[in-house]
Amino acid sequence: MSRRRGFFAQLRAANQKLRAPKPSGRTEVALSVVPSFASRWLVPRLGRFIEAHPEIDLRISAVPRLVDLASEPVDLGIRYGRGRYPGLAVQKLADDAWVVVAAPSLLARRPPRSPRDLGQHLLVHDDDPDAWPAWLKRQGVTSKATQRRTEISDSSMLVEAAVRGQGLALARGSLAIDELTSGRLELVFPRIAPVPTGRAYFLAAPRENLRRPAVTAFWTWVQLEAAPLRERALR
User: Fold this and answer.
1) Measured in whole angstroms, how far is the alpha carbon of residue 23 from the centre of its chain?
2) Would you give the distance in Å from CA 26 to the centre of its chain?
3) Quick one: pLDDT at residue 144?
4) For the purposes of burial, counting CB atoms within 10 Å of the CB of 115, is it exposed (0-12), middle (13-18) or buried (19 or more)?
5) C-alpha neighbours within 13 Å on the C-beta side of residue 147
6) pLDDT score of 19 more than 80
7) Rounded to whole angstroms, how far apart are CA atoms 167 and 150?
8) Does 205 have pLDDT greater than 90?
9) Is there a single domain that holds both residue 151 and residue 82?
10) Do 139 and 211 lie in a common domain?
11) Taking the chain, what is the end-to-end CA distance rounded to the nearest angstrom?
């Protein structure tokens, strides 16, 4: 038991050292975030935070696992789930929903007129095998085992495959929002409402970390940046 207590004491000391101001007077904020959200949404916007807070250094860990914010040297996290994170301060950033997207060039050649036409197209999905069947069922269409499908486990790569015209993708709206805004992707069925994934993005952090001005600055900035995501999430 004493060895275990010694281990946790060393871990706490290491965490404090990593979170302490640097000798140069600079401050570091360590963030854990799911890779798909980091690459598709967070990183393209980080320049605005860096410009607004030149005194703060960021250390971003893009990992799919659920980091233990209480014991690992991470100040806060952006998590994708249902918001049940006991012992942490939690703030919802935005809900998420499934949307069917495709490259404009692909739609120009042979656009599906309704969900019933999807059997004639290659359908792309991430590692949620029930996503397409659930979406089709919601539209009153029976999913057929003979439909051509491609699975891409990484949700960010799925969006990129759609941009390159490799099929009709059932994507998370949060990850496709920039491509939809820029016109690199289009909604295949713009009159069909997005289908909620049942999950959302949340900021989470040990409450004591929010006493640090640098952590609070990033916490506040992310919420402001996510405002357009919240507005468009389920529309």
Assistant:
1) 34
2) 28
3) 67
4) middle
5) 24
6) no
7) 8
8) yes
9) no
10) no
11) 54
Using alpha carbons only, how large is the chain's radius of gyration in Å? 21
Are 133 and 109 within one domain?
A: yes
List Cα–Cα distances, 154 to 36, 81, 124, 232, in angstroms.
7, 16, 12, 23
Q: Outline where 57-207 has alpha helix (H).
A: 104-109, 131-138, 155-163, 173-182
Q: Are residues 103 and 183 in the same domain?
A: yes
Residue 110: alpha-carbon gap to chain centroid: 31
Q: pTM of the prediction?
A: 0.84
Q: Which domain holds residue 113?
A: 96-197
Residues 100 and 191 in one domain: yes
Give the total number of structural domains in the chain: 2
Question: DSSP letter at 114?
Answer: S
- Predicted confidence at residue 4, as pLDDT, reads 40
CA 233 from centre of chain: 12
Based on the fold, state whether residues 39 and 84 are members of the same structural domain. Answer: yes
Round to whole Å and give the CA distance between 94 and 111: 30
Q: Residue 211: which CATH number?
A: 3.40.190.10
